[in-house]
Amino acid sequence: MKYLRILLAVTLVFTLCSAFSMKKEKEKQVYAFGVAASFNDTIVYYTEIQMLDSVVLDKRGFLPQRELYSYQLKNYLEYELAKPDYTCMIYFSENKNKLQKEASKVKGKYVKGNLKLQSIAPSDFSFKKPEE
User: Fold this and answer.
1) What is d(CA 125, CA 127) in angstroms, rounded to the nearest whole number?
2) pLDDT tens-digit series, residues 17-61
3) DSSP, res 129
4) CA 104, 60, 27 angle in degrees (round to 5)?
5) What is the model's pTM?
6) Collapsing DSSP states into helix, strand and coil, what is residue 23?
7) Which of 51, 63, 107, 132 is the most exposed place for a label (fewest CB within 10 A)?
8) Largest Cα–Cα distance in the chain?
């Protein structure tokens, strides 16, 4: 009888612990767009807002491996468009409307600086989830 109580207590504790540890983070859609500018050129390239595939922001709200998304844009400019020496930035959010406002604000700053904006079509370039 004593062993049965201990076995039931251990089973109960194990069940409770496993129930709380199986709690998953809710996967929300994450949107992003990229901007590439150079000090040597008057053209600023930007991507349309895209939904990132199966991405979850970390506990602090940052995009995991965000530097790799910037490198994807940089590599596209260097190898596909032959535009080296561009600095690439990525903007991201779970709220598409906030990101659209941010995109228009960023584009407005470049237009005020008398720079030309050149869009990169989603059919030509899209962000891919980096390999882990």
Assistant:
1) 7
2) 565 555 455 567 899 999 999 999 999 999 999 998 888 888 888
3) P
4) 80
5) 0.74
6) coil
7) 132
8) 84
